[in-house]
Fold this protein.
Amino acid sequence: MKKELALKSTPQIVRTALMCIIAQVVAFSLWSYYNFQVASMPTIILAIFFVFIIVMILLFILVILMISNPRVMMEYDQNAIYIFKRKLGQEQVNFKDIVNVKATINIWAKPFLIYTALIIETNEKDFIIRNIDKIDEVRDMIKHLAFEIGEEK
């Protein structure tokens, strides 16, 4: 029987959506300050305006991608881990094939020590799972299941 291992990170979705809203507010404020006329903006303000527009669009796309992830991102049973992706369906990683499990820190999140991706290394392929809740706990659970319990079998 499969058990849940990792869920989609709701706080990360909320933070990204808030950043998108802030970018919208700043872009709209700049635009309204110049009476909704882009032509009347100075060059540097115009560049800043377009940067905020691009950031807003990218963050919006990122929010949509994170929302479209399945609620349960990973499950496990006594033999393997099952990773669920948006369109790829399900991938299976057997515990005996796992070489290493680590959580990486994005360079932008480094000062806050926020883990941003879980990497499960096997001899054939590396599995990278992003946007999951409690990455450090999931990493420790996989290590426990693969290396400690797996050796007992």
